[in-house]
Amino acid sequence: MEIKKGLEDVYVKETEITYIDGELGRLYYRGYSIYDLAEFSNFEETSYLILYGKLPNIFEYENFVRSLKESRSISNGLREFLKSVKKDANPMDVLRTAVSIMGLEENTHVYSISDQSIVNLISKFPTIVAYYIRLKRDLEPVEPDPELSHASNFLYMVNGSKPSEEESKAMDVAMILHMDHEMNASTFASLVVASTLSDLYSSIIAGISALKGPLHGGANYEALKMFREIGDVDNVEKYILTKLSNKQRIMGFGHRVYKTYDPRARILKTYAKLLAEKKGGEIKKLYDIAEKVEEIGIKYLGSRGIYPNVDFYSSIVFYSLGFEPEFFPTVFASARVTGWIAHILEYVKDNKIIRPKAYYKGEVGRKYIPLDSR
Ligand code: CMC
């Protein structure tokens, strides 16, 4: 009996959404190179592409953008919930609960995936995240601005001022790069729930729950914590060697599929550098530390196919854009929600409940002994 621990190399479905070439470090959404999408596309267009399989024409694009914009506001019930949350709550727990409230408000008694639920989820994630960020900072939440794109509006609601063109582009690119990644843990978790014909919100909650972990979407937060802990470029080599000799992991390094440099990390590095040089101060210092961690990490781990992944430089990009580190995974989730939905739609078209097996290796036929005789 061969058990593939962690389902490594196990295919669970066919897909036409995302292709990863882990040996060559290439990534395609619906056949388009991630490099082209990062350079020429934006969140809305790539989201449409991932969901519906083709680049939208101008009519489809404008319709999709309009429906996203019209759905950005959150209900009074959600606002009240966000105001009631303790300030030290984990932001992923807050997001997960907020999506649960959205599901309750939509009254999802039966299995259904409506276009409106899809748009609701994608458009409201940033509003929920930004609303909680502002409350946590003891600031008034900022209402969505329909004049702004999805990425720019997210930053506007977080920072209370309109982002520069560079910031807006960096956010768009970061969200494109996080939008989908084939059969990662959170996508699989959401598929398991969807395959039982549960509702869309319940499936997305499963995705958020899986993404929260430090081995998955929580790694960006851990990476920034590590850069801060290192404190100075001169400390990097000693820090990395100590970690490795204690059998600890370098966060933002390594990947189940990529055995070379993650192309998303390559693109994010460009933006991290650009923003760090522009902003200077602490951000530049953290970027310099990250660059050195990359160099030393590859020196010791590269020969084993362990390189920076998406979470490595996204941490610097998200921080430069005004997000506190504990919120990084919620930004990841705000992009990945599109991928979760696309995979759910693809899977349920030809649904089969996901019900694998566990190989039993315990005893059988044990004699039951009453409690007072044990
Ligand atoms: N630092 C040091 N050693 C590592 C690292 C790392 N970041 N990643 C893997 N290794 C070693 C690991 O210790 C193991 O060594 P050994 O064979 O001697 O026990 C070997 O490489 C294989 O590791 P694994 O955990 O069996 O590999 P996996 O494919 O199950 O795990 C991973 C993949 C991403 C969970 C892992 O590389 C890791 O823990 N990385 C750090 C956390 C991280 O950055 N996660 C983000 C992943 S990418 C985007 C996302 O999903 O959010």
Automatic annotation (TrEMBL):
GO-annotated cellular components: cytoplasm
Keywords: Transferase, Tricarboxylic acid cycle
Pathway(s) this gene product operates in, as recorded in its UniProt entry: Carbohydrate metabolism; tricarboxylic acid cycle
Enzyme category, top tier: transferase
EC number: 2.3.3.16
CDD domains from the UniProt entry: citrate_synt_like_1 (cd06118)
Catalysis: reaction(s): oxaloacetate + acetyl-CoA + H2O = citrate + CoA + H(+)
Keyword Plastid: no
Record GO biological process: carbohydrate metabolic process; tricarboxylic acid cycle
UniProt xrefs under Gene3D superfamilies: Citrate Synthase, domain 1 (1.10.580.10), Cytochrome P450-Terp, domain 2 (1.10.230.10)
Listed name of the protein: Citrate synthase
Organism: Stygiolobus caldivivus
Taxonomic lineage: Archaea, Thermoproteota, Thermoprotei, Sulfolobales, Sulfolobaceae
